[in-house]
Amino acid sequence: MTLSTDDLHELIRLLEQHPEWRAELRRLVLTEELLGLPGLTRELAGIVREMARSQQQGLERLERVEVTQARLAEALTTLAEAQRRTEERLDALTVRVDALAARLDALAVRMDELAEAQRHTEERLQQLTARVDALAARVDELAEAQRRTEERLEQLATQVSVLADTVQRMADDLGRLKGWSLEERARRKAHALFRSLIRRPRLVSEEQFAQLVDDAQDQGTLSPKEADRLIEADVVVRGQQPDDRSEVYLIAEVSWGIGVKDVQRARERATLARRIGLPAQPVVVGTWVTPEAERLIQHDGTLVLLIRPDDWAA
What we know:
The chain is α/β, with parallel strands linked by helices. It has helices at 5-17, 20-29, 32-35, 37-188, 190-193, 206-218, 224-231, 260-275, 291-300; strands at residues 199-203, 235-240, 247-254, 257-258, 280-286, 288-289, 303-306. It has a five-stranded mixed sheet. Strands 4-6 form a two-stranded parallel sheet. Mean pLDDT is 83; it is low at 171-175.
């Protein structure tokens, strides 16, 4: 039976409509070998793929081996360099150890010498210790003697302090007595004493001067405290100025030794006397003047009358 082209096209259409008929058609048309060819092809493809994977893995392993080999070669080179440096350091250390050994030998000899010197030092220390012990005992004896001496000195210091206080009180009393004596003699001999400063000197009695001060206080010219300070003037002498014979009052501060306070008191009282209308002049009278008082006198114009102690005997 001969198939036409139309029959072939119809067969193809039917196979397209019925795919399950294709396998049956292949079984009838093809031999057993041809029918098994697709499966064999698939099996071969799987084997080829497996061989390709194995080959790829082999290549990858080969690359890793080559990398490892390169690293090992580099490591061997590094180890060789390190070994070379180690040997150089060992050579240097050997030289240093030899030098240290020589120094240790020298130190051993020196230690023996020091040990001998230490023995001699210990012997000397023992001798010095014995001497120090003897000196310590002597120092203890001296300390005890010093303590007794200090006790006696404290007793003497107490006695000297008492004597010093007594002498100071006596000196103060003597100074006051001298001052009072000078003040009294200045009143008694005012005419003879103050002739060197003014003409016709006459002593102003305490009653007369007190009357002048009281009148000034009553008039309000002086306050009570100012009146008290003015009335305490040691000596007041009335007379005439040598040049123009004008009236003058000498407000005198009398002291055995003239100090700054004496000058200040004389100046203050003369100022108060001028406030109540008296032509007053400050005067200090004594046997000597301190340097400080002398400098003050040179600047404020206070008169000074120095008398030798012998001049007061009469």
